[in-house]
Amino acid sequence: MNETAKRILSGVTLAALACGALYSEFFNWILLFALLFLFSQMGLYEFYHLTDRGIDGRPFRKLGAFFAALIVVGYYAQFLAMKGAQGHELSEFAQWLVAWFYPNANNLAPTLLFLFFIFASVLQILTRPLDGTIYSLAVSVAGIVYTTLGVCHGMLLMGLEHGLFYLVLFAVLPISTDTGAYFAGRWFGSHNAGLKVSPKKTYEGYAGGIVTAVLVGVGFLYGWNAYAPGALSGVPMHPIEIAIVSFVIAFVSIFGDLAESALKRDAKIKDSASTIPGHGGMLDLADAIYFSLPVGYFYLTYKSMLGYAL
């Protein structure tokens, strides 16, 4: 099986798993939690692998994974609170999670990040040489910010009134950008973009990715409002608005891909891992999604602050 076929097959398989998690409300969306928890932990593991420099500095892997898990649970509790406010019935366990991990409507992520920094600092002082202290602490925190916080904004998107639409949209747009750029580059690429971080990329590829994202975004809006059942339809977005949003997210996705490429070049490896056939690792697959989900959520947050319906 060639590389393109592997890429398509693994992508379809992951998409099927994601659809099952997104459309199932089983036990208060526990499958959604499991999916995003997996994305967080796999991405964090690969990031820590990329940034491990041995005696010159290494991340606190186990401690980072533990605090990342707590942060995901905290965002899940916030998601449950958002669903409860919309009238969804929460189980006793879900109510307990909201009470303890989203106390008084406060997200615990900033507190947990600071506690992680404190514990990592203590471990650095007690168990490691002073050389590499700055690097070790910096990459330990950066890994959670990059992967875990990025993924967790998917839960916040899902918690909105039309959350399923928005979460799928901001996950599909970077995938569309990457797919469009890949095929446009292969078929039409002739002018190298001249970027040292990714020397094979062409202007035609980037243009194809952006055009693909805009077309997919507009088409997705029309298709969703036309065929989505019941209350899922009627998303209050104008085609011009979603075209502009798709254009911006395409640019964000491109730089998300380039940022991960820079990490791999610094680590002098080709792929972040080999767990996903045709794609490499989770960072290779979801690098742009880690950027697009927070940007999409912040856009919708400020749109709501200006008084526009979501």
Q: Could you explain how this protein is built, in words?
A:
The protein has 310 residues and is mainly α. The chain folds into two domains: 159 residues, no CATH class; 149 residues, no CATH class. The chain is 73% helix and 0% strand. The N and C termini lie far apart (44 Å).
Tell me the series of helices and strands, N- to C-terminal: HHHHHHHHHH
How many helices? The count is 10
Query: What percent strand?
Result: under 5%
Tell me the helix content. Answer: over 70%
- Rg, alpha carbons: 20 Å
Structural class: mainly alpha
* Main sheet makeup: none
Count of the separate structural domains: 2
Low-pLDDT runs of 5+ residues are none
- Provide mean pLDDT, rounded: 87
Gap between N and C termini, in Å? 44 Å
Principal-axes shape call: flat
Q: Give the tally of β-strands.
A: 0
Descriptive tags:
single chain; 310 residues; mainly alpha; 10 helices
Condensed summary:
The protein is mainly alpha-helical and 310 residues long. 73% of the residues lie in helices and 0% in strands. It has two domains: 1-159, no CATH class; 162-310, no CATH class.
Secondary-structure map:
Layout: H1 3-23, H2 30-50, H3 61-85, H4 92-101, H5 109-127, H6 133-158, H7 163-188, H8 203-227, H9 239-267, H10 282-305
